[in-house]
């Protein structure tokens, strides 16, 4: 400690022309100055070490952050692409749903037309939508959809829609063909004389060989006689065109209807004719009144059927009443 209290003199001799300079320095100062420089050097080294280590840590952290950002950006891009794909699939599904709805409407219209042609009453069936939650009991076992992700579900739905659309594409021509066949059948039914031409079912003379009521000789009766009252309505037995409407003897007021396919019907002894040559008539339409004109013993309708201009028995054609078609 005594040494620390000593003082030392430092002598500086610049050169011979200048005076000598002396500095008195205590021993403690001589110790503190080097110690200070040593301490500063150690602090500087420690600072440099810590700074370098921190820079490395910051660099590693920045690298991790950059990698995490890139990963998140990649995941976000993948999700965005998946969302875009799903949106595109949903747009396609919406378009397919619209097309299927239009096709279903077409099929429903065809079905209604077929039922109308066939005379079937349309029954209204109320189908509850799966998207509409009605009040009441609910239940059933539930199964998770873990095996199907959104893309698979959308793809499967699209495939189902495509298969359904293809089925309806094949079904529509079939229905159209069926409707065309039914229309053809209905047309044949309409032009076939299958209804009774009068309200009366009183047969006063059948088709075939009989004794003539005037001459009492055996002769061929070319039609079917239906008894009734004067003025009773007489109906067209089928759709057709009036080719004859006149008053002659012995037929009296008589009408001929051409139904096509070589089939004609004739109505004799009418009290009144309500149609003229060239008129188009429909099955069950009134064309005249029952009467007693021409060669007749009393009010009746003489009804004839021609096939290729040959008289045939009308009885096999009389299958339904006019009211059954209304």
UniProtKB/TrEMBL annotation:
Keyword Transmembrane helix: yes
Gene3D superfamilies: Glucose Permease (Domain IIA)
InterPro entries, A to Z: Cell_wall_metabolism_enzyme (IPR050570), Dup_hybrid_motif (IPR011055), M23ase_b-sheet_dom (IPR016047)
Coiled-coil segments on the chain, per record: 69-120
Protein name as it appears in the record: M23ase beta-sheet core domain-containing protein
Organism annotation: Paenibacillus oryzae
Domain M23ase beta-sheet core as annotated: residue spans: 220-314
Top-level taxon in the UniProt lineage: Bacteria
């Amino acid at each position: 400690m005594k040494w620390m209290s000593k003082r030392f003199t430092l002598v500086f001799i610049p050169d011979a022309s200048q005076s000598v300079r002396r500095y008195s320095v205590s021993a403690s100062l001589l110790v503190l100055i080097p110690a200070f420089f040593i301490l500063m050097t150690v602090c500087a080294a420690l600072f440099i070490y810590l700074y370098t280590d921190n820079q490395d840590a910051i660099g590693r952290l920045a690298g991790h952050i950059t990698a995490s950002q890139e990963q998140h950006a990649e995941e976000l891009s993948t999700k965005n692409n998946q969302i875009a794909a799903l949106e595109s699939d949903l747009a396609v599904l919406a378009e397919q749903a619209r097309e299927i709805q239009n096709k279903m409407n077409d099929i429903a219209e065809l079905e209604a037309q077929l039922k109308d042609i066939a005379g079937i009453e349309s029954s209204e069936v109320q189908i509850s939508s799966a998207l509409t939650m009605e009040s009441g009991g609910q239940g059933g076992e539930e199964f998770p959809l873990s095996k199907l992700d959104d893309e698979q579900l959308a793809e499967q739905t699209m495939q189902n829609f495509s298969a359904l659309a293809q089925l309806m594409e094949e079904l529509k021509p079939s229905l159209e063909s069926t409707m065309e066949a039914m229309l053809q059948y209905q047309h044949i039914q309409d032009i076939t004389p299958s209804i009774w031409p009068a309200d009366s079912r009183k047969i006063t003379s059948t088709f075939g060989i009989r004794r003539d009521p005037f001459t009492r000789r055996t002769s061929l009766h070319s039609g079917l006689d239906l008894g009734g009252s004067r003025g009773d309505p007489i109906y067209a037995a089928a759709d057709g065109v009036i080719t004859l409407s006149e008053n002659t003897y012995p037929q009296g007021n008589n009408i001929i209807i051409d139904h096509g396919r070589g089939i004609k019907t004739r109505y004799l002894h009418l009290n009144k004719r309500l149609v003229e040559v060239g008129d188009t008539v429909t099955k069950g339409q009134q064309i005249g009144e029952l009467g007693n004109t021409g060669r007749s013993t009393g009010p009746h309708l003489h009804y004839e059927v021609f096939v290729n201009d040959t008289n045939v028995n009308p009885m096999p054609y009389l299958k339904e009443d006019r009211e059954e078609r209304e």
